[in-house]
């Protein structure tokens, strides 16, 4: 049984409109990092939202540990929502600009970890940010007062504090400088290694996806055009579109 599985998902936003996703089937096994790559507008974020239960497909199924999302009870759905956490391209968009970063991190803990007292929350938060390579002094600042890379590390910390089994990273390093991108990706790799977290890693950058993931789904115009193991990307890519993406990434290096 897969950890997550989508079967023949179609998503049409407007009645009679075009399908942003057409018959998309993907699976994620426990401990795996699966990549979704494709150009802007190919349907990656639409798929990410459906996988995590933020949006519903027009047709097709999503199951979590063998159970249809639509059949989960309220309590089970809450547990699912906690188990699946997102990291987005713009970390500040989900942070109150007037809150200290400490408060940004503490609020979800207050809601989701009622077993922890104030002091335990503090030590957990400080340990987590330190592990992510941040000084704990940074926690007194607001999201606007730190760099993009630091803000993304705070977003990762917030995600980890909820101990998710699955992290959906949607273009999570796309607006960062290359050197910061590499640092963040390596941090995510360390998390994978240490905690066994499963990842859905979404990017338009096939080289990044290859570096981070075990398996890659290539999307074009709302369809999966190819599925490949990352280590066979260069030798076994069949579709013209995948080869085009690989070519682009060669051209840049
Ligand atoms: N809420 C929405 N309403 C209408 N169209 C949408 C909505 N969200 C996405 N789309 C359309 O669906 C297509 C896929 O978008 P998206 O999933 O965001 O692509 P990607 O993340 O690969 O760039 C695009 O044509 C986009 O304009
Ligand atoms: Mg997107």
Question: Outline of this structure?
Answer:
The chain is α/β, with parallel strands linked by helices and 253 residues long. Helix content is 40%, strand content 24%. Residues 44-45, 170-171 line the site of magnesium ion.
Question: The CATH topology is what?
Answer: Rossmann fold
Number of helices: 9
**Which strand order does the major sheet show?**
6-7-8-3-9-10
Tell me the strand percentage band.
15-25%
Question: Are any ligands bound, and if so which?
Answer: adenosine-5'-diphosphate, magnesium ion
Helix content range: 25-40%
Give the CATH level 1 class: Alpha Beta
Q: Could you tell me the radius of gyration in angstroms?
A: 19 Å
Task: Tell me what the structure shows.
The protein has a single domain, classed as Rossmann fold (3-Layer(aba) Sandwich). The chain has helices spanning 44-51, 74-83, 101-112, 118-131, 148-161, 178-195, 206-212, 233-236, 240-252; strands spanning 4-12, 19-28, 33-37, 59-64, 67-68, 84-87, 166-170, 198-203, 215-220, 223-229. It is α/β, with parallel strands linked by helices. The chain starts with a strand and ends with a helix. It is built from nine helices and ten strands. The chain is 40% helix and 24% strand. The strands form two sheets. The chain has a six-stranded mixed beta sheet, with helices on both faces. A four-stranded antiparallel beta sheet has the order 2-1-4-5. Helix 3 (101-112) packs parallel to helix 5. Strand 7, helix 6 and strand 8 form a beta-alpha-beta unit. Residues 44-45, 170-171 line the site of magnesium ion (MG).
């Amino acid at each position: 049984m897969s950890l997550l599985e989508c079967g023949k998902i179609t998503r049409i936003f407007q009645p009679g409109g075009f399908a942003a996703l057409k018959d998309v089937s993907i699976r994620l096994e426990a401990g795996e990092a699966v990549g979704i790559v494709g150009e802007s507008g190919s349907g990656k974020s639409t798929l990410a939202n459906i996988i995590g239960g933020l949006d519903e497909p027009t047709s097709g199924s999503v199951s979590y540990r063998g159970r249809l999302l639509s059949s989960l009870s309220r309590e089970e759905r809450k547990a699912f929502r906690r188990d699946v956490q997102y990291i987005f391209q713009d970390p500040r968009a989900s942070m109150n600009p007037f809150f200290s970063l400490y408060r940004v991190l503490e609020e979800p803990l207050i809601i989701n970890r009622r077993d922890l007292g104030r002091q335990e929350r503090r030590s957990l938060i400080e340990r987590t940010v330190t592990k992510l390579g941040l000084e704990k002094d940074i926690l007194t600042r607001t999201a606007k007062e730190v760099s993009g890379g630091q803000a993304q590390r705070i977003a990762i910390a917030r995600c980890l504090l909820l101990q998710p089994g699955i992290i959906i990273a949607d273009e999570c390093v796309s607006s960062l400088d290359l050197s910061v991108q590499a640092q963040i990706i390596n941090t995510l790799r360390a998390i994978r290694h240490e905690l066994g977290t499963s990842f859905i890693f979404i990017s338009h950058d096939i080289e990044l996806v290859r570096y981070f993931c075990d398996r890659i789904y290539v999307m074009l115009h709302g369809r999966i055009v190819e599925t490949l193991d990352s280590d066979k990307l260069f030798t076994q890519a069949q579709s013209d579109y995948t080869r085009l993406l690989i070519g682009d990434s060669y051209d840049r290096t």
